[in-house]
Structure formats: C-alpha cells, structure tokens
C-alpha cells in the first residue's frame, strides 16, 4: 500500500498490523498542568509502559499517538517506549484546538496563540513540514500525521488559520491528516474549508464522530471520501456502547466500512489500569470491545470478523500511508 512513518522509522504499511487509530500514552499538557488537573497528565513512564505491555499482549501492534505539540507531546520518551515494547507508534505534528493555545509554547514564555497570531502561514507550514520530514524538537524522530482542530460549534480565526497551515503541510509532505472535532461538531464545516483549500479529503480522518452519533451527518461526511474515527470507546458518559455500535453498523450498511477507524482516545489516568485509578486500560478495546462488537455485528447479519479486520488492519494501513 505504501509507507507509514513511525517514531522509530518508516515501515511498509503491510507491517503496521492491528492498530488503534487515536490514543495517547505519555503526555503532559501545559494547559492542564497549570490548572492542576492531575487526571489529564499521563506523566508516569512506568505506568504508561505497563499499559503498552497489556496492549501488546491483547494483540495490539501499533497506534496513532494524537498528541500535538501544544498538548504536551514527548516524542523522544514515547519513541523509547515503542522500542521497549516492540510496537509501532505514529506521532503528530500540527495543532490541537484553540483553548490550549493560552499555554506557553516551549520555554519561550510566548503562548501558542501569540505565536500563531504573529506568524505567517508560510512560517507555520515550514515548522509542521520540518517535523514530518526532518524530526521533532531537533530529534531524529519524525511525525507521521499532521493535525488540526476546532472547538464546539465554532471555528475561531486562529483555528481557521491552522486548518490552512495543516492542509498545506499535508500537500507538501503527503502525510495523512487528522482533525479534532469538539464533541463531533463542525465536521462538515471543516470539510468545506478543506475542499476550498484543495485538500484530497480521502487523506483525512475526522475524530470524535461517535460523540455526535448522527447517521445523516456520518453518511454526509463519508460521501466526501474521508475516514471517520470512532474513538470514544469505553466512554459511556456520552452514550451507551450500543449507540456507537449502531452508528458504526449504519455506515457499514451503506457500504462505508472501509472508511472507519477505531480508537479509545486514551488520555486520562482514570482510564488506565496502571495509574492507580482502577480504569479499564488501553487493552480494553481489543480484549473486551472487539468480541462484543463481533457478537453484535453477527446478530445484525454482518460478517463481524471481516469488519473488525478492516477497522483494525486494512483501513489503518491505507489511511496512515503517505501519498
């Protein structure tokens, strides 16, 4: 299929294997650190490593770490974890959603919002492209995905600027593109911007669409050729799990099973089995959700094994490949 860029080098997409398509493993967001939101700080390398060990034991072979620079990315440490546990981790260049930009950009004291506001689109694009082509924060570890995002029911002027930057970076590098939608909102509005900018929408994945389980919306988005990420698995505070399953099956009934990606957006201590909070752990999707989905798909008259192979293996291999 093509080349996938992991933190520890480029691989053939056929070697990616069973993949989670949106998670985090070791990140310390300055925004949440300043506010002493301990649950949102994945700051223990040992505990994070134990999560990865469980993931591998459950059959996991790769995952996309969606931690953008402004969300407290630690690429060198994550690359070390990937080597230690013999799995592929794909890293992120680009931006998160706007509220995190009130935190400092590295050690300069300048906030992300100030830097985005004063910098030209060309200057920002060069920074993102450099992380894909040369390395993150001066390291040898390169990003394999470019990312942007927008807030709840709105696209701010600075967010609109970063959308254009990331589209340009995607077009310059051929990297896959990931976009954050707050609670699954603004996906079609983002798609309209991307189309206006000339993006090939088959190169992008829209995150958090299961937080807005609207079949009409999902089908409209799927018709653009984009990938759709169902990445809130385990988060029944939003919806019972069957609502997500029905949304997935609804897309499959319409023939869009090859555009579905699965992840857990694992990003809290309370989600972890090893951070002392008694959570379900990174392995849960493979160990518990996968057999449940298989049963539900088969009850709906569908080939659950074929669908799961698409969601975890063939779709990620195609999506994460460079153009």
Please provide a written account of the structure.
The chain is an alpha/beta fold and 323 residues long. The chain has a single domain (3-319), classed as Metal-dependent hydrolases (TIM Barrel, Alpha-Beta Barrel). The chain contains eleven helices and eleven strands. β4 (62-65), α3 (75-85) and β5 (88-90) form a beta-alpha-beta unit.
| Strand order, sheet with most strands | 6-7-8-9-10-11
Distance between the termini: 10 Å
What is the correct CATH architecture?
Answer: Alpha-Beta Barrel
**Average of the residue pLDDT scores:** 96
Count of DSSP H/I helices? 11
State the low-pLDDT regions, or none. Answer: none
Largest sheet: 6 strands, parallel
Strand tally is 11
CATH H-tier superfamily: Metal-dependent hydrolases
How does the overall form come out from the CA principal axes? globular
Share of helical residues: 25-40%
CATH class (first level) name? Alpha Beta
- The class by helix and strand makeup works out as alpha/beta
Radius of gyration over C-alpha positions, nearest whole angstrom: 18 Å
Q: What is the name of the CATH topology?
A: TIM Barrel
- SSE pattern: EEEHHEHEEHHEHEHEHEHEHH
Beta-strand fraction estimate: 5-15%
Q: What is the domain tally? A: 1
Oligomer category: single chain
Question: Which labels suit this protein?
Answer:
globular, 323 residues, 40% helix, 3-stranded parallel beta sheet, alpha/beta, 6-stranded parallel beta sheet, 11 helices, TIM Barrel, single chain
């Amino acid at each position: 299929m093509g080349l996938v860029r992991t933190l520890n080098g480029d691989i053939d997409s056929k070697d990616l294997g069973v993949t989670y398509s949106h998670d985090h493993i070791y990140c310390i967001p300055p925004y949440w650190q300043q506010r002493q939101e301990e649950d949102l700080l994945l700051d223990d390398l040992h505990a994070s490593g134990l999560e990865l060990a469980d993931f591998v034991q459950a059959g996991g072979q790769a995952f996309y770490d969606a931690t953008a620079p402004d969300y407290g990315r630690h690429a060198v440490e994550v690359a070390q974890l990937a080597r230690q546990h013999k799995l592929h981790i794909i890293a992120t260049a680009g931006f998160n959603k706007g509220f995190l930009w009130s935190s400092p950009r590295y050690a300069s004291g300048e906030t992300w919002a100030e830097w985005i506001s004063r910098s030209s689109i060309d200057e920002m694009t060069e920074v993102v492209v450099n992380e894909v082509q040369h390395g993150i924060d001066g390291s040898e570890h390169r990003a394999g995905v470019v990312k942007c995002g927008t807030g709840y029911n709105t696209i701010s002027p600075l967010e609109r600027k970063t959308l254009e930057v990331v589209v340009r970076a995607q077009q310059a590098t051929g990297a896959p593109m990931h976009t954050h939608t707050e609670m699954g909102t603004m996906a079609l509005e983002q798609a309209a911007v991307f189309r206006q900018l000339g993006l090939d929408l088959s190169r992008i994945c829209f995150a958090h669409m299961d937080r807005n389980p609207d079949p009409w919306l999902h089908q409209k988005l799927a018709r653009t050729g984009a990938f759709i990420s169902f990445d809130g698995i385990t988060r029944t505070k939003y919806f019972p799990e069957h609502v997500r399953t029905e949304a997935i099956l609804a897309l499959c009934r319409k023939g869009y099973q090859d555009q579905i990606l699965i992840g857990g957006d694992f990003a809290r201590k309370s989600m972890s089995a090893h951070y002392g909070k008694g959570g379900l752990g990174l392995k849960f999707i493979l160990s518990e959700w996968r057999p449940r989905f298989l049963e539900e798909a088969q009850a709906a008259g569908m080939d659950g094994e074929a669908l799961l192979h698409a969601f975890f293996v063939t779709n990620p291999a195609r999506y994460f490949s460079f153009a």
